[in-house]
Design a protein that fits this description.
Keywords: Signal. This protein has about 210 residues and is of the alpha+beta class. It folds into two domains: about 1-30; about 30-205, no CATH class. The protein contains four helices and twelve strands, in the order ααβββββαβββββαββ. The strands form three sheets. The protein has a six-stranded mixed sheet, with helices on one face. The longest helix is centred in the N-terminal third of the chain and has 23 residues, at about 1-25.
Length: about 210
């Protein structure tokens, strides 16, 4: 009986140790969650008017706004507490005519701070025909600008039409890349399968973006 009790005690201790290791493993410590906000330009404030469009400041998550630049039938989005020169001078979009979706997915760390944002872009490979099979859909993952340095940018792309688990893949990219991604230095890349309708990304950051 004494031997059985000892074995049970040892087994209980082993299980407790395994549980502790699972809870404390790096992946668990960095587990992120999602929250969603609406993005509707009619609810935004025009902060700059341009010849071919405007820059909008839109409600985002808590005190983290969304900046949408609309110009020449193309749109760009910037998230968070971004520097003024980045808001005014940055533009990341697609060479094809395009427009952003109406829902932002924010990836939050354990403290509830948004580290990345995921937004769907509609790519008009045949302009004016939203019902065409050539209409692309891309999940664009962006680093959210924080108060410390004010820099945010696109960090990755997922073709939403070519990847059945596109949303999960976009979240994985957001969680793994956002924190250490160096805007102006590291180049955003595609993840998963990429189709012909996904478009060609363009990046026009301020010249001093990498020199924070």
């Amino acid at each position: 009986m004494a031997g059985l009790a000892i074995r049970r005690t040892v087994l209980s201790m082993a299980l407790a140790l395994i549980f502790a290791l699972l809870v404390l493993r790096p992946g668990a410590a960095q587990a992120n969650e999602s929250t969603f906000t609406e993005l509707t330009l009619s609810q935004c404030t025009v902060i700059t008017e341009k010849e071919l469009g405007a820059i909008f400041e839109c409600p985002g998550y808590r005190n983290y706004p969304v900046y949408v630049t609309d110009g020449d039938l193309r749109q760009s989005a910037l998230f968070g507490l971004a520097r003024l020169d980045l808001v005014q001078g940055g533009f990341e979009s697609f060479s094809q005519f395009n427009y952003v979706g109406s829902e932002v997915e924010w990836r939050l760390d354990r403290e509830g701070r948004p580290l990345a944002a995921i937004l769907r872009w509609m790519i008009e490979n045949e302009p004016g025909d939203d019902t065409s099979a050539s209409l692309g859909q891309v999940l664009v993952i962006s680093k959210v600008a924080q108060e410390q340095d004010g820099t945010g940018c696109v960090i990755g792309y997922v073709d939403a039409l070519q990847n059945d688990q596109g949303n999960m893949l976009a979240r994985q990219v957001a969680d793994e890349a956002a924190t250490d991604f160096a805007c102006g230095v590291t180049q955003a890349s595609w993840h998963g399968e990429k189709g012909l309708a996904s478009g060609d990304p363009i990046h026009s950051p301020p010249t001093n973006l990498s020199g924070n």
